[in-house]
Structure prediction request, 365 residues.
Amino acid sequence: MWRKELQNNITTIAELDDFQDLSKIEKIKLKKVIERHPMSISQFYASLIDWKDPKDPLKKMIVPTCDELKLSGSYDTSGEKSNTKFFGFQHKYEQTALVLATNQCASYCRFCFRKRMVGKHTQEVIQNFKHAVDYIQAHAEINNVLITGGDPLTLSTEILQTFLEDLEDISHLDFIRFGTKVPVFLPDRIIEDPDLIELISDYNRYKKQIYFVLQIDHPREITLELKKAVDILKRAGVILNNQTVLLKGVNDRPEVLAKLQNTLVSIGINPYYVFQCRPVKRVKRQYQITLEEGLHIVQKAKTFLNGHSKRFKYVMSHRTGKIEILGIEDNNIYFKYHQAKKSRNFNRFFHKKLDKKACWLDDLA
Ligand code: SF4
Prediction:
């Protein structure tokens, strides 16, 4: 059933034209955009968009625009190439292994930092999961694995089962994470697959703890259907964390960011990270806000939040590590490494002179 739903995703400009009127020129330009970076929008997500509102935040996240023809930025902002041990397998932080299990998602976010590969022909997806298992087995320092992509929940339950079975006997592996936006785009994937729920419930009870790292970016993505999926996952013992990307025109108002975090907590999802939008090619111009603006939004949002709702860290996922953006004082901006690739940066606290236009660490002198 959920597979059928996926097949009905909006993937062509002609289908998009049924939802919003496009001029002839726009159609030509957008066709160019999606030839390079495919469009895919689930019918469920399309039903959440106010198509008459040109500034609808959900539309901004998922519908391509001609701004994607602007080329500034990079396709590898977090240094993924240098962390890749073999296709589809990365090891950046000592304790964490990362597997790119697929290049497919239930819909394609236009701001995705893996835009270089989602929905596209790529060699970056893991070819043989056993190679990942062998690597993890041989590295006792790894205590968790993040299975991501793309969205691993677009894979069949049978494939997910083989992943879990392959990982289950690694004694130094404490928990397994799945990075997914499926509960937002295609909640039926969770709601209508009792085999998946039985599988993860079994692992949570008897084998390894499973975490889902969700990506919910706007309060309107928290639908009744998402709540139902979340409830099912919680009853199956899954621990749910959420990361949000701070995006211009989407969640860049303190009230919106605060409402998002409060609503997440009210349904049992833990706020985990708020990410500074990366300077991704074809993304940064439309979505990135400055570090100064980001700090203002996050700090103001925190004044509306209780301790639990403001546990998230505001970070930059930089090629050198996850860097927490702490604050501004006396024209300096302060940072601290939360995760570091090199040991010399572990816990390093540092500051840079504030540049009001800077959106990323590399923009600061
Ligand atoms: S769901 Fe995640 S991987 Fe897929 S397009 Fe969105 S951000 Fe990228």
In short: The chain has one domain: 2-363.
